[in-house]
Amino acid sequence: MTAIPAPRSGGGRGGRRTNWEKWGWIYMRASGVLLIVLIFGHLFVNLMTGEGVSQISFGFVAGKLANPFWQWWDVAMLWLALIHGANGMRTLVNDYVSRPKVRAALKIALVGSTAALIVLGTLVVFTFDPCLGADEFPDLVLSICTA
Asked: In the chain, what is the straight-line distance between the N-terminal and C-terminal CA atoms, in Å?
């Protein structure tokens, strides 16, 4: 007969272990609240202030991405949303994939794709140059590029 260790006893491996499911659950709730604030702040500034939706253009986005406050706002939104979504997908994989090798492969693919999107998105936000290509398309150059 196999003995089942008591809850919160460390899983029977002699010592404390990190409960990743608990921390994943806590992350989903905390990131969800932060994402609501970040997303509705983003929507309010883009759609309700100034000229509303008609103000959104390449120049508007370029102007926002030139401001460090909005860079960090967008990066926080990007990181939280991607990790939140990846954690949700991890939960689905754990719940519905029964074969261990397939489950492991899907989790590796999930971590890899999330990491790649985080790196690429962060690079785009912090290295965005609205004047890139101004020589090839002079009729599309923003006024800030000619100065």
From this structure: 80
CA distance 123 to 127: 6
Contacts of 81 (CB under 8 A, 6+ apart): 35
**Does residue 147 have a pLDDT over 70?**
no
**What total number of domains does the chain contain?**
1
The enclosing domain of 73 has a CATH number of 1.20.1300.10
Which DSSP category does 3 fall into? Answer: P
Give tens-digit pLDDT for 124-139: 999 988 777 666 655 5
Q: What is the pLDDT of residues 57-114, one digit of tens each?
A: 877 888 888 899 999 999 999 999 999 999 999 999 999 999 999 999 999 999 999 9
**SS3 state of residue 73:** helix
The DSSP line for 5-65 is PPTTS-TTSSS----HHHHHHHHHHHHHHHHHHHHHHHHIIIIISTTGGGG-SHHHHHHHH
Question: Residue 62 has what pLDDT?
Answer: 84
Cα separation, 65 vs 60, in Å, equals 9
Backbone region of residue 10 per phi and psi (left: phi > 0; alpha: psi in -120 to 50; beta: other values): left
Q: How far apart are CA 23 and CA 29, in angstroms?
A: 10
